[in-house]
Amino acid sequence: MSQILLQIDGKEVGAREGMTILEAAQSVGISIPTLCHHEKLEPYGACRICTVEVEVRGRTNLVASCIYPVEKSLVVRTRSEKVDRIRKMILELLLAHAPDAFELQDLAREYGADKNRFDKEASFCIHCGLCVRYCVEVRKKNAVGFVDRGTRREISFIPEIAAKECWNCKECFSLCPTSALQAAFVLTEALISPSSEPKSEE
Amino acid sequence: MSQINSPAELEEFRQSILSKRDPDKHCITLCSGSACHASGSAEVIASIEEEIKKQGLGAEVDVRRTGCHGFCERGPIIVIHPEEICYFQIEPKDVPEIISQTIKEKKLIERLLYTDPGTNKKIIHESEIPFYKYQKRLVFGSNGSIDPKSIEDYLAIGGYAALAKVLSGMTSEQVLDEVKKSKLRGRGGGGFPAGSKWEGSRNAPEKIKYVIVNADEGDPGAYMDRALLEGNPHSILEGLTIGAYAIGSHEGYIYVRQEYPLAVENVHIAIKKAEEYGFLGKNILGSGFDFIVKVHRGAGAFVCGESTALMTALEGRAGEPRPKYIRSNIKGLWDRPSVLNNVETWANVPLIINKGADWFTQFGTEGSKGTKIFSLVGKITNTGLVEVPMGMPLRDIIYKIGGGIPGGKKFKAVQTGGPSGGCVPEELLDLQVGFDELTMAGSMMGSGGMIVMDEDTCMVDVSRYFIHFLTDESCGKCVPCREGLRQMLRILTNITEGKGKEGDIELLEELSETAREAALCALGKSAPNPFLSTLRYFRDEYEAHIREKRCPALSCKELIAFHIDPAKCQACMMCLKKCPAEAIVGGKNKIHVIDQEKCTKCGTCFEACPPRFGAVKKISGEPVPSPVPEEERIIIRKSKEK
Amino acid sequence: MDNDKIDQIVDNHGCEASSLIQILLDIQSENHWLSKEALEKVSKSLQVPLTRIRHIATFYKAFSLVPKGRHEIHICVGTACHVRGATRVLDTVQDLTGIRPGETDLDLKFSLETVNCLGCCALGPVMEVDGKTHGKMAPSKAAGVLRNYE
């Protein structure tokens, strides 16, 4: 397999064909923040916090590093004034939903994001999609999915499937950065018909 | 009907159709497009057929239901051939007169003719009417001559000759070269050179390739594709087949929005007829080339007009766009090379093949060749669909063809490119219409919607309207779009409601940058355009809303109040009777006063007050004057003796 | 809606998962809504996860997961109609029917939806009831039009 040579933050990096910029950066210890990325799942490209600057054929563009494939002679900058500004804004937009999420708070400190920039939103799901994708790709149970679109989009369990599968699984719970998932599950449990056994013991 | 197995057979068949048609025989064509249909064309045509039967003229007069003629403001429209007499706004009661006077006695009915607003003279022939005169209807012109449900009509005007030429005498390379030479750019919004897109797919190693027609036409106010698909579906099928041949594809899709039931119906009929006659299916015209087309209905999502989202929908999923780092002409539908082009782009292809790229390039400008169909709508006198050569100044489109702004109002801006575009103000009206020219002005060509706005349109509200539209239509997957637009909408709504504050504009600009740079797809990346362009040219309106709580266009409900000027009110009771909220108090000879608590700002009183009084006023940015005390409301009329 | 009808529709589309949206459009058109049972039946017949079907049924505006009223009111809020005052017409219709876009009233008489362009811009503002187009609408005309529907 031929090596693809590219430059990340001034460093020469050798990558395999088919690798993403994120993978190439991680291979040489350069860290790029992510929220919707997980090594067990297909790259999703939704949170956009992994956005980096790339220079290709003389033009500078901003791309999502978790899905952009490496190219020969690509010049990548993982930090810049613009990139930082965008990451700060993305964090501020998400903090309006989940101001207490640890991952968001850590990143907020690094990028100077103000959690009170926007009024608080009712839903604390940040749509990273980790729960949905894990259930589809790894557990293959399709117990939870997305519904609707735009600002009305949310995650939703299928009560019948959740009743059968989730109690003994819950593997997605540890993936949720905000505990919105646990909240959705508890709500679903409460709505399942009384004929199923009560589960809460704590 | 047996299949046509060779180009020679096609020409023979075409001649046989033409020989049965007498060009001097009377033919009444009636526009049966969706807009005229809504104006009552179905009843008109029923009357015409009945009247012809009644007067025993069945053998002498043909009646043809055609596609959209474009002059939608004046529908229902009929054109009487061969004289080319054009009558407008026909009602069933006009029909007996038309048959007995114009058909039988060759006499014109003056009141149904077009009156030139400048000279007040009547114009008889369609081609002399200013609306049509300044257009160059290369693609759209055929709509008026054919019944879209009839393949023979299409053959009679030369249909499928381009396909025959391609399959019998050109290699796929030659076809590709011709399209490249024509410099045809996509008519759907991106303006990407069609030839390059086709070439990319042609050269891709994967064997199975697709060609796709994007008939999702989601831009509100744009309905050109609908008129083309309803009125001349075979032209799109022909173009698509030629494109498939050029890139080596054997399967095509037409993605039509389900909100266009007539287009869906006519496309299905066209495909069936094309298959019957051998223009689709196996061994087309004996060439050995196979090609089939399937129709897929959209289900109500603007985002599916974006090419990757459309392909995701074709795969039977929710239309979430995919990253375009690897272009879809290499990895598209089912990860295979797919050429997706707009309806109008495909409709241009048979023309280019028939008449040649050199002929095509004589129209338009250096960067934008050919013509473009625009939907000229909004505050404009002649609403309708117009086709003009690229390079025509916007001013000519709006004034010469569009007839200017109705009601004596002043032009303010024209919005092009739909929710991804921007506004072009008065000072730029001499701009020559073209892809690059519009982009440099801060707007874009888009699919061709041209919404004209006048002095009564609030530009802050326009940008709020588009952001609202996009928050509804966004797929919701990525943060910059879903969350960014959510916040932009909140801020813009607050501004229009008088709750704007210092710093709002800067925050909107920051959110705009995030969406433009980091959003996943073109919907998100272009979403801030209407805001940025209205800010560029109408910043004063934003500032008035924020700092003075005033709407300069007197449009934003929360910032205006309706007030009856006591000095002008003549107590005629017109507004009082019509007010749907019963918010006006007064009586005969008693000055009317609006109860501001009950007023819903619907504007009915404003429309109702007779122009000679003009007593109802809209105020903004200042308090409403207190009502005149009860005792002073009686009007004392001057007695007649004096 | 009976299961046989759903089976027939699924068969008409060759039992293909990629025709999922077309199948749901046909069911919606027959029944004027998509019931939970219908979605489950389609999921089983096509061997497609119910989450994907639910996403589609909620993502696309053509589908309704609740029964619609006897009369469907569509108000065009496309740009051309907006500029000609469609918002005022919408406000008045909301007041008259007591429902907002996306809702159906309790008597199942009216369902209200906004649509983004009916392609009749010359007649704007446009209101469509049961497929019949009413052009050049104004707030004052709305009550008169709706009074005709039982």
How would the blueprint of this fold be written?
The complex is a heterotrimer of chains A (202), B (642) and C (150).
Chain A: E1 3-8, E2 11-16, H1 21-27, E3 51-56, E4 59-64, E5 75-77, H2 81-95, H3 102-111, H4 130-137, E6 144-147, E7 154-157, H5 159-165, H6 180-191
Helix pairs in contact in A: 2-3
Chain B: H1 7-19, E1 26-31, H2 34-38, H3 41-54, E2 61-66, E3 78-81, E4 85-87, H4 95-104, E5 114-115, E6 122-123, H5 130-133, H6 151-156, H7 161-169, H8 172-182, H9 194-203, E7 210-215, H10 224-231, H11 233-247, E8 251-256, H12 261-277, E9 292-297, H13 307-314, E10 338-342, H14 343-355, H15 357-361, E11 371-378, E12 384-389, H16 394-401, E13 411-416, E14 422-425, H17 435-440, E15 449-454, H18 459-473, H19 479-496, H20 504-518, H21 522-526, H22 529-548, E16 560-564, H23 574-578, E17 584-587, E18 590-594, H24 604-608, E19 616-620
Chain C: H1 3-12, H2 20-31, H3 36-46, H4 50-59, E1 71-76, H5 79-83, H6 86-97, E2 110-115, E3 127-129, E4 132-134, H7 139-147
Parallel strand pairs in C: 1-2
Antiparallel strand pairs in C: 1-3, 3-4
Helix pairs in contact in C: 1-3, 6-7
